[in-house]
Every structure is written in structure tokens, then in C-alpha cells.
Amino acid sequence: MHFRLCWLLLAVFLASCSGSSDSEESDASTFEPLPVLERSVFSYGAGDSIYYRYVDQTPTSKTQVITVKGVAMEFTATAGHLVASRPVNGAGSRDDAAIFYTAYARDDLPKDTRPITFIFNGGPGGASADLDLNFLGPKSVDLDVLTSASTTLPLIDNPNTLLDKSDLVFVDPVGTGYSSAIFPSENVDFWGVDSDASILSDFVIKYINTNKRQYSPKYIYGVSYGGFRTPIMARLLLERSATDYAEGKDGKNILNGLVLNSPLMNRRNDCLTHSTFACDGAVPTYAMIADHHGKATARNAATSDVFLIGVRSFAAEFKKHYDGAFSGLGWGDRTGWEAFLRDNKEAPPFLDRLYQLTGLGKVFTLGDTAANNPWIENPNMNAWRFTALFGERYGPDRRKLSLNDGRDYLPPDTIDPAVDDGSDVYEYVRQYQRQFIGYQQAASYLGFNGESFDRWSYSPDQKLPSDPDRIENSIPDLAFGLQLNPQLKVLIQHGYYDLNTPFHKSELDISRSGIAAKVPVRLYSGGHGVSPFDTDGYDQLKAELGSFYDQTPAAKLARWQEAKLAEPGQ
């Protein structure tokens, strides 16, 4: 559930994806070395923290103006820290952390009606900068004029910014960006599904109180693992109600909506993570990728929507055969599968359909073996195996497909970014903050923390009435949140070609949890973390996202009630 962008041209300028250690300073001449005092700047190892006295909660702000679609928008850009807390053992003790944020707030609109969106990246271990510059924030880097001789970032107005619909707060989880545990707590204390969500939900409360946004419509936007943490944060905020607000304690405007971009909310039944579960949720992604590369023979002239109707139907058939014939393969038991292969009525059409949809294998004949048809070896092929086999058969120089976007082949001898646990220092972010906001920081900005990624705990701290077992699964939190606030708006966005978090996996998980009528899943021609960079349909995505913000809670509730009444048996 990894999402990070390495700006290659920015790397030429500021070593944005240097992979250097947390304590290294950039060689770029635009930065001057600063002294590092013990626990006085932010460090990102598991046992690291900062002393409270070194945390400055005074923000840095600058007024800016951008023009989007001919409309000038004046706003205040702000960067800084807030101290957030989470209870420990229910005995009055707590863990504290200094959470870094970058915010953009319109100055010309009333706060009480102006939405505010808190934005979180994935990993786990990803900072929020990847979602700010060039994605949802107000500015992009003009790569056409960026050169190694540039002394400042050539910034241009971002036509895709979400600032036209909402004020934006980009938040860095503990151990990323400039966010750190506060002594005696350590960063690792917040590297788990519930500890992470707890400290970040408290940050949301602190930010709302500090900036007097109690009455604003509130949203959370999460990408990749951010889409896993978002339902947990939502449930925690709704459980807290408005009791911690500085004002507006009798209000019901606690949380209005969630946007989940490329989430994998249930890892517990994910076949890429656990080989004993069915890969039916990945089959439609395999088909879309094979079709993109011209290697599938099943689509003909059908549109993507029509094509996927048939593919989803086959995925259901795939699951049926998994339950009945080859579920034992994950445990090394081939008995059921070998018996299925001897069935001249069932086996040929099933395996032929896999070949037609994915381009892998061949037309099935009795006597085929794994040597000439990989589906014989194991039809429950996970995405990692698919990327390797597809690349061996069709890729230039036998290159593997990218897990994050199956339209792309990885360069030779490179680690797939989806599983790369190397830490990345983003020096270009420090340049952007100094140049655009006036914010200066002694520490390096850690764009991705590989140690956090490796050491993350998916074991929850508590149970829920709706599901006592939340291990690796945040869908119970989403369902419980919808019970606490039936008017909560939820939108899930997925790319067709994302093997990291396949779209049909979300469709199946949402349907099986009984909340499909409340939670639409929208699909786009894109990869993981659907962004302006990887799709020619971002205008459609932006329009649908805009409609989501414009939709009132009352209208959303009415549509849900209509859908419930239309269900069979109602």
C-alpha cells in the first residue's frame, strides 16, 4: 500500500529522492549546513524523539494568490507543528507527538461554511508532500523549465488543485516529514494501526480548535495506506463527538466525508499478502492490463464498463472454483486442483478464459503441464507472480510490470517502488517551503520512512461491536462510522491498472460488508494513487470529486434510503 512519487527532474535539482540517511544534509548550494543538537531537531528512527521544549507551535504563514480556470483565489499558506496526544492504558498517561502540517486556507470565504480537508499519504511511512506539490495543492513545479542550473523552484499554478472546493491540510504522520514523537515517547510507539490513527485524529481536533474551524464541513482524504487509516480516524472522531471542541460542543458537524484513493482496507484476505486467499479481486486488473498491452483477446469492441461486467462475472466463477477445487494450493495440497484438471467439462473453458483475459498461458488441452501453461501450476496467481510472468513473456528485456501501474515496465535491476523500503529525503520540499511559505527547518524532510514501513503493526488495540477481529482490516471501522453518522459521505477512487490495491478487491470487500449502497467505488484510467500524472481522465475524476463535495449530507442520506428501499425483500 505504498504511494510515493520520486520527481526525477527535481532530483537533478535538489536530490529529491536521494535515498540518503535521515541525518544527512543536501550538497545543493541553496542549503547551508545547520548545527544539530541532541533531540533538538527531528529524527526518524524507531527509538527517536524530540524534547518538548524544542517544539515550536508558532506557524509560519504567507498570503498567496493563484489563478485556476480564470478565477483568482487568494489564500494563506501555512506550515508548522501542533502537539497531539493519545491516551495510554486509560490511567491518565499519554503519548505526545509533534505533528507537522502544511495548510492552505482561502481568505475570502466564511469559515463556517468553507470545507476543510485533512490529507494523508500512504506507505505506511509516507509523508504528505507527494500529495501537495503537483497533485492536490495550489502549486506545481514547471518541469519544462526546471534545469540543474535553477536556483529556485519554477512554480506554476496547479490547475488540478482541490483548493477550489476545500481548504487543505497536508499532514505528516509520526516519523515522516518533520513529525516526531516527544520524549519519553518514541516514534515506534505510533507505528501501528490504532496508535497512528489515534494521534492523528487528536491532531485534527487540535487543528480545528487552534484555527476555529469547529463549524466547518470536515473531510479526510487518504491515499493508499492513507485509505486504511482514514476509516479508523473517522470512527475515532465520531466516537469523540464534539466533546473536545473548544466551542460548538452541541454541534453535529463532526465529520462530513471521506475520500479513499487507491485503498486496501482489508489486508487480512488479500492474496498478495496472504497466499491462502482467493485472488478473484485481482483478476479484473489483470484483464485491464493485458488489454492495455494488446495481449488479451476477450474484450473486442466493448467499452471498459461493459468489458468489466463480464470480467467481474468470471471473477465470481473464479472464486467458486477456488472454494471448491484449488483452495488447498496455498497450503501445498494439490488434490482438489489435480482432480479439477481431469474434468474435461469444467477445466478447459475455465483455463481458456484465464488465457483470453490475461494473455498468459495457452488454449488448454488435456495433458498440459506447468511447463507450457503457468495456470496449471497455480491458478490463484497473485499480482507479484503476474508482473513477473507477463514481463517474461511480453516485456522488453523481460522486464517486470510495475505493481503500482501495470501499464509500465520497470527499468532493469530496479526495486519495485511498491515494496521499496529505502528511506527518501526530499530536499526539494525544504526549498519549496522556504520559497513559497517562508518556513525554514533545520532537519531534513523525510519523504518516506522505510523503517516505519518495515516495522508497522497491523494488530489493533481494541475490538468493535460490529467485528471483534480488526487485524489488518479497517472496514469494520468504516461500517461502524457509518452507523455513528448515517449521513457520512464516502467516495472510493481506483485506477484500472493498479496491482498494488486492485479495484475489484475494494468492490468485493465493500459489498461483502453490506455497505455498498453507501460507498460508491469510482474507476479511472490510472494506476495506484490515481493522480494527474497517470491518467488522461483526471478531468472526470476532478468533476466527480467536486460533485462529492457539493453533495449535501441530506441528499446523500436520501439516496441511501432510496437504495435500501430498492433492495430485494424491502
UniProtKB/TrEMBL annotation:
<keyword id="KW-0732">Signal</keyword>
<keyword id="KW-0325">Glycoprotein</keyword>
<keyword id="KW-0378">Hydrolase</keyword>
<dbReference type="InterPro" id="IPR001563">
    <property type="entry name" value="Peptidase_S10"/>
</dbReference>
<dbReference type="Pfam" id="PF00450">
    <property type="entry name" value="Peptidase_S10"/>
</dbReference>
<dbReference type="GO" id="GO:0004185">
    <property type="term" value="F:serine-type carboxypeptidase activity"/>
</dbReference>
<keyword id="KW-0121">Carboxypeptidase</keyword>
<keyword id="KW-0645">Protease</keyword>
<dbReference type="GO" id="GO:0006508">
    <property type="term" value="P:proteolysis"/>
</dbReference>
<dbReference type="InterPro" id="IPR029058">
    <property type="entry name" value="AB_hydrolase_fold"/>
</dbReference>
<feature type="signal peptide">
    <location>
        <begin position="1"/>
        <end position="23"/>
    </location>
</feature>
<protein>
    <submittedName>
        <fullName>Carboxypeptidase C (Cathepsin A)</fullName>
    </submittedName>
</protein>
